[in-house]
Structures are given as C-alpha cells and as structure tokens.
Automatic annotation (TrEMBL):
The lineage of its organism: Bacteria, Pseudomonadati, Pseudomonadota, Gammaproteobacteria, Chromatiales. This is Acrylyl-CoA reductase (NADPH). Coiled coil: none annotated. NCBIfam families: oxido_YhdH (TIGR02823). GO terms for molecular function: acryloyl-CoA reductase (NADPH) activity. CDD domains: MDR_yhdh. It comes from Alkalispirillum mobile. PANTHER family: ACRYLYL-COA REDUCTASE ACUI-RELATED, SHORT-CHAIN DEHYDROGENASE/REDUCTASE. SUPFAM superfamilies: GroES-like, NAD(P)-binding Rossmann-fold domains. Residues 142-189 form the Rhodanese domain.
Length: 329
C-alpha cells in the first residue's frame, strides 16, 4: 500500500478561525478503525461548506479531515464483512464532523458505517449522488410512506438547483410525479426541466409570510430550505398529504401555525441522513442505483480537485453551486 496521500486538513487558530490546507499525510496518521479505504472520490455538500469555511459549528475537534461522504476501494480490513478490493460508499455517521472524513486519498473508518457499492453504480456515480442524493431519496421514500402518489398532483421541491433539490427533482420525476421546482436562479430553468421539472416556481413567490392556510396546490413537497418558505409550503399542501423536511439553507426557524396539521391533516416528515439505520441506507442506495442513469448523474455533477475545495465551500454557502460537485482524489 502506498503510504503517502493528499488530504485537506482543517485547523483552528487562536482566534477560533478555521484554516484549510492540502497536506501530505501517511497511513500511520489515520485514526483507528477496522477498515481502510483508498478514497477515489468525495463530494461537497452544504455541510462541507460550513465545515471547511468554519461558518457553521460542524467540526467537533481539530485537526480534522472534512468530507461527509466518500467512495473508494477497501485496501485493508479486520472486518469479516469487507475484503480488500471491495467498492464501498460512506455517508454521514459524523464522518467529516467528529471523525476524519472523505476529503483525503485514504480513510480509516468503522465497517458498520460503510455500504457496499450497489450493483449498477460506480464510484463516480456514487459521489454524484453522495449525501445530497441519498437524502433526496430518503425524502422521496418518506413521501411515499405517507401515502403521496402521482395522482395527488405536483410535488414541490424547494432549493431545487442545489444538491438535494436537484436530485429530488430527478428522483421524483423518475417515480412518476409531476415536479414543481422552486428556485431563486431563473437561469437554471432549462436545466431543471431537463432533470424532470414541469413547472418552475420563482423563489420570491414563497418568501413573504402567507396566510396560515392558502389554496391547496401541492400533492406533497420536499423542503431543503426551512424558514418562511417551509411555513408557506405547509400552508398550500393538499389535504392529508405530506412534506419531507431535510434542510436549513434558508434558515432554522419555522414561522408556521398548527392549522395545516389540525385542519388539513398535513404530515411534516423530518428526514435525517446522518444516523439513518443501515437497512434503510441499503434500500435507498439500491433504489438510487436503479433509478438514476449515468447520463443523469453526469448532467447533475461537476468535478473539481482537492485544491479547489476551499473556494467551492465558499460558493456553496452563497447558493452559487448548481447540482452536485464531485472531488477527484
Ligand atoms: P446546496 O447549497 O447545494 O442547495 C441549497 C439550495 O437552496 C441552493 O442551491 C438554493 O437553490 C437554495 N437556497 C440557498 N439559500 C437560500 C435562501 N436563503 N432561501 C431560499 N433558498 C435558498 O445544499 P445541499 O443541497 O447540499 O443541502 C441543502 C440543505 O439540506 C442544507 O441546509 C443541508 O444542510 C441540508 N441537508 C440535510 C441533510 C439531512 O440529513 N437532513 C443531508 C443533506 C443536506 P436555488 O438557487 O435553486 O433557489
């Protein structure tokens, strides 16, 4: 095993500022774990943006290798579940927050955090999906579990040009839903329609406080932004239907009333990808591999080097990244 690899390392200075630097590390620098993986690709999610820039309290201890997801090949394993040569993907579990993460050529982790790469998906495709796509799949599954079906009418996706949003648009369209995409970037309209959106809703239509109950428009919704937009979405979902909430790109508050819940029986389904139990992970990954074509994945993702990560981390927090960003290691 070649001993040296590149890693993005975060340190904190005396003033509490986060500093990000690409360094050469060796395998002996890696933390404990029963499986060592040669990471070929990682990706940039909103949470990575918060971690790398230090603009959110994501990193629990320094020095830290960020990167909340990665894909690669097992090189060493003390676990009976994995052999050298196995292709694996990892998202969540506090990796890149409390434990060293994927923005490095090698990672050592607990075997129970890994998912074998499902049939039909390669490592690049797995990182085009990453935490964002996995979360989008969990949102679609949550809506289905709440009984939302295509005949209920269009499903609204907020933050549609982002990683989770764009994957949700593609996955909902594939599942037969009509998709309405909320975006603050009209220049992305054609791209969102290519991904499967049939309606574009300008973000400004949802940013002002609405009435507690508006007319019933949406068969369901995937919300990645929270705040006033989520409150307004709740007010306009059809009777008995559901909203899957997973994000806070627009804020952590929820200035809503209980009316949608008690007068329309609306269900608000929280979605968490980090601690999601393994059986649900495997189910979601198998469906992602089945539902998304290689063409769709390359349409949604751009590729960058490790050295470009600090700049893209700034960009994603400014809402300037479209779709997914794969990091080649
Ligand atoms: P991105 O930055 O890729 O996407 C967020 C999108 O939200 C932007 O592209 C933009 O879309 C929209 N947006 C940004 N700022 C605002 C704003 N102020 N008001 C309204 N809309 C805004 O992030 P990700 O897709 O990686 O993540 C989305 C959210 O989901 C984040 O909050 C993230 O933390 C959360 N998340 C949660 C997970 C979980 O397990 N619960 C897992 C993964 C992500 P547009 O330009 O089209 O309007």
């Amino acid at each position: 095993m070649s001993d040296s690899f590149k890693a993005l390392v975060l340190e904190q200075d005396d003033a509490g500022k986060t500093l990000a630097e690409v360094r050469d590390l060796t395998v002996s620098d890696l933390p404990e774990g029963d499986v060592t993986v040669r990471v070929s690709h990682s990706s940039i999610n909103y949470k990575d943006g918060l971690a790398v820039t230090g603009k959110g309290k994501i990193v629990r201890k320094f020095p830290m290798v960020p990167g909340i997801d990665f894909a690669g090949t097992v090189v060493e394993s003390d676990s009976p579940d994995y052999q050298p040569g196995d292709a694996v993907v990892l998202t969540g579990w506090g990796v890149g927050e409390r434990y060293w993460g994927g923005l490095a050529g090698m990672a050592r982790v607990k075997s129970e955090w890994l998912v074998p790469l499902p049939e039909g998906l390669d490592v690049v495709g797995a990182m085009a999906i990453g935490t964002a796509g996995f979360t989008a799949m969990l949102c679609v599954m949550a809506l289905e579990e709440a009984g939302v079906v295509p005949d209920d009418g269009p499903v609204l996706v907020t933050g549609a040009s982002g990683g989770v949003g764009s994957m949700a648009v593609a996955l909902l369209a594939k599942a037969g839903f009509e998709v309405a995409a909320v975006t603050g970037r009209p220049e992305n309209e054609a791209w969102l329609r290519e991904l499967g959106a049939t309606q574009i809703v300008p973000r400004e239509e949802l940013t002002e406080p609405a009435r507690p109950l508006e007319s019933e428009k949406w068969g369901g919704a995937v919300d990645t932004v929270g705040g006033q937009i989520l409150a307004n979405v709740l007010a306009s979902v059809r009777y008995g239907k559901a909203v899957a909430a997973c994000g806070l790109a627009g804020g952590i508050d929820l200035p809503a009333t209980v009316f949608p819940f008690i007068l329309r029986g609306i269900r608000l389904q929280g979605v968490d990808s980090v601690m999601c139990p393994k059986p649900m992970r495997e189910k979601a990954w198998a469906r992602l591999a089945r539902d998304l074509s290689a063409d769709q994945l390359s349409e949604v993702a751009e590729r960058i080097s490790l050295e470009q990560v600090p700049q893209v981390a700034e960009d994603i927090l400014k809402g300037q990244v479209r779709g997914r960003v794969i990091v080649d290691l």
